[in-house]
Structure formats: structure tokens, C-alpha cells
Amino acid sequence: MTKNETGSEIGVGVVGCGRVAQQRHLPLLGELGGARLVAVSDTDAGTRDKLAGQYGLKGVYEDYRDLISDDAVGAVMIAAPTQFHAEVGVAALQAGKHLMIEKPVTLSLDELDQLEAAEAASGKVVVVAMNSRWHRLTREAREVVRRGTLGPIGLVRSAFTDDSRLDGQARPWMLQHEMAGCVLVETAVHHFDLWQFILETEVEDIYARMLDPMTANERAAVTATLANGVIVSAMFTEGLKGANELEIYGQDGRLRMSVYDFDGLDITPRSEYPGSMGTRIRRLKESLLSFPGAVKRLRSGGDWAGSYRNEWEHFIDCIVNKKRPESGLPEGRRALQVGLAAMASLAQGARVRVADAPRGILPFTG
Ligand SMILES: NC(=O)c1ccc[n+]([C@@H]2O[C@H](COP(=O)([O-])OP(=O)(O)OC[C@H]3O[C@@H](n4cnc5c(N)ncnc54)[C@H](O)[C@@H]3O)[C@@H](O)[C@H]2O)c1
Questions:
Q1: Which residue among 58, 186, 236, 249 is least packed, with the fewest CB closer than 10 Å?
Q2: CATH classification at residue 88
Q3: Stated pTM of the model
Q4: Domain span at residue 221?
Q5: Could you tell me the CA-to-CA distances from 115 to 63, 88, 111, 136, 360 in Å, in that order?
Q6: Ligand 1 centroid – CA 192 distance (Å)
Q7: 18 CB near ligand 1 (under 6 Å)
Q8: What element of type H or E holds 344?
């Protein structure tokens, strides 16, 4: 078991205990070595009562400032709506707590500047929770690209869709661009980060189109140019059936990554015809061979759940071993800037360079 500086487990307090906290973070905190849940804060009384009973916690607070001043809390996780990330994060760092912040890190570069100043003054660890980075297949895809297996890469196709706004599931804050930043900030930042992380480059410019903004049916299509000359075509929504996929096209092969599938990484080399019998047999064989490993991982929730576990283990490792996080405020900034540029593109109806992105959300009403 990993221990913190004083040899004991790190006490974690979670601020904002809605969907992602209850589905992902809180259950994990009971299984991790090196950290344990000691406190929660939520403005909703029903949520507080439920969690107090479920986790047998003494530290249950309405006001996040009370959680931050709890001596048992050594690290704060922020899973409140995005508009609160900076305020809570700065307060936590000023109180000397380590910090994990859900993506998107903030909604503006001014808020991000405040967080960076607080981080520098505190010397504490800050991780931006872009969990897709810690997915098993993301790491494999990055290695494939790094090894040059695909040859020179020219195109990327990416899609992140889910149905979390259907059937009235959308929380009101998510439908307001000023509060959530639309699907281009709320959802797409995962993929903006993945393009840059997997291909080890940066997004240079972006053009976005959106229909039905601020509704459950809001959907966006995007084209972007990366600094290494790759063109990306992408689509995002929270109102259609879920997919989380990336395809990378190189001269020597095509990589397909579908992170919800246990056998979701496939490389078709240039020598193979995609629909041939040989290709199908190879895929079937690879799928069958990966099945026992998948069953083992499914017992602990599967690869998607594993991405959150890996992110927590990384956070604990950074605290205990005083390491620089792989996904800190600079990486959160790069992903957010692409989102801000994409939103500016909607408002201006033109391609926007990420370097010229506005410092905050430009709302788009269609
Ligand atoms: N990494 C991921 O996979 C992922 C997935 C979903 C959401 N998120 C991010 O996590 C954050 C929360 O999203 P969600 O879907 O869980 O939202 P949610 O609306 O379901 O939950 C937010 C919770 O915060 C509480 N809250 C609101 N203001 C608060 C405050 N000032 N102090 C304490 N609690 C407060 C609400 O009562 C609610 O319970 C957002 O930033 C979102 O972008 C990340």
C-alpha cells in the first residue's frame, strides 16, 4: 500500500457529489491503497444525507469551506459544476491541500491563472482529471504512434457522443453555455486532450459547427489542424447513443481505438485489405486472445472504470513521491484553450487559431 508523507493514508474530501462523483470517484476511494474518503461537501441536502449513510462519514458539509478546514482532509477532489472549480480549488490550495479537479479545468483563462498562482504558492500537487488519458487503450495507442508503426500520419477521425442529456437527464447548468461551455468544452475537452497526448503535438486551429445549442439535442462537428500537419475531423454530442472512438490514419497503417470495447484497439497494416478474410480472422483471433484479460479486468469494473482508478493512483503517486503530474494545469489549459477557440469559431463562423482563443466562453445561440 502507498503511504503519504506521514506514513498514513491521504484523507480525501470530495466537493460536489453528483453524477460523476457518485458513479466514479466515491466508490473507487474505498478500494484504493494510499487514500481514503473522509469527507464530502454538497449543496444538496438529500445528497449529503444519502452519502453520510452510504459511506458512514463524519465529515459531511454543506459549505465546501468547512470541508477544506477539516484537518482529516489532505487532498480535495472537485466534482462540482465547472463554474465552481476555480473558487474551490484556490481555497483548497491556500489551505495547503493537494487537489484533483474534474475536467474541464475551468471555464476561463483568468480563473486558470488564479489556480496556477495558488498552485505555485502552495507547492501542492494539482491533477486535472482527464481520465481518458489513463485508459489502457490510450496508452497503447500512444505507444503505437511513438514507435512509428503507422508511418507518417495525415488524418484523425474522432467521435465522443453520449446520451446523458436524453430523457430529461441534463442538469440545468449543463445546458447553459456560460456555466458549462457546451459540448465543445464539457465533452470534447477529453478528445482535444487525447489528440495532443496521443500524437504528442498541439492543436493549431479549429473550425466548429453546431446545431440546436443549449438543448438536449446540441451537437457539434469540428475540423482542426494539428501542429504536426495532421487534419482532424470530429463530432460531439450528449444527446445521441454513446461512442468514444478515435481513428488515426498513417501511410503504413490505420489505428482504430474504441475505448468502451475490451478489444477496441486494432491496427490494420498497409499490407492488409481491410475487409479481407485474413484481416477478419486476425481480428477474431486477437479478440479471443484478449478475452481472458478482459474478464479479469471486468471483475474490477472494466477498462473505463480502470481509467479513473489509474488517474487516482497517479494522483497518489505524485503526492507520495513528489512527482510532476502528467495531467496538471498546463495540460488542462491546452485542452480548455482548444474548447474556447472552438466556441469562438461558432460565434464568428470562421476558423480560429488556438493561440488567438478568447480568455472565456463566447456563448452561441445559433
Ligand atoms: N471525467 C469525467 O468523465 C466527467 C464526467 C462527468 C462530469 N465531469 C465533470 O465533473 C463535474 C461535475 O459533473 P456532474 O455530471 O457530476 O454534475 P452534477 O450536476 O451531477 O453534480 C454536481 C454536484 O455538485 C453539487 N454542487 C453544486 N454547487 C456546489 C458547491 N458550490 N459546493 C458543493 N457542491 C455543489 C450539486 O448539488 C451536485 O450534486 C463537471 O465539471 C463535469 O464537467 C467529468
A1: 58
A2: 3.40.50.720
A3: 0.96
A4: 135-302+335-352
A5: 20, 10, 6, 29, 15
A6: 21
A7: yes
A8: helix 329-348
